[in-house]
Design a protein that fits this description.
alpha+beta; 111 residues
Length: 111
């Protein structure tokens, strides 16, 4: 009986963790609507960069890509993660103006 409860808990946690996310394309297509708002996105890490004063990674979800600025350890390329943070429109990285997510928390994604 304990094994069934554990599996049920695991599946319920996975379902709750992977739901309630925003498509990256929705953010990229309507950046003003999402600016300064908290969102959760999930996807695969396609690249990461540890600059002297800035750490960020690029996340892809099948609908688009977005940069995530973090103070945490960088995830590995191909990691599947869920990120929650605030959207910032026109954030400057290396002279480019981009819409980014300022990461507040991250977890693994089981999709």
């Amino acid at each position: 009986m304990g094994k069934i409860k554990f599996i049920s808990f695991f599946l319920l946690s996975a379902l709750l963790f992977t739901s309630c996310t925003t498509k990256i394309s929705d953010i990229q297509n309507n950046p003003k609507e999402f600016n300064d708002k908290e969102v959760s996105v999930k996807g695969k890490v396609v690249s990461s960069k540890n600059a002297v004063v800035l750490k960020y990674f690029k996340l892809e979800d099948g609908t688009g890509t977005i940069y995530v600025i973090t103070k945490n350890d960088l995830p590995d390329e191909n990691d599947k993660v869920k990120v929650t943070g605030n959207v910032k429109q026109y954030f400057k990285i290396a002279g480019l103006k981009l819409t980014v997510i300022m990461e507040e928390k991250r977890g693994i994604c089981l999709f």
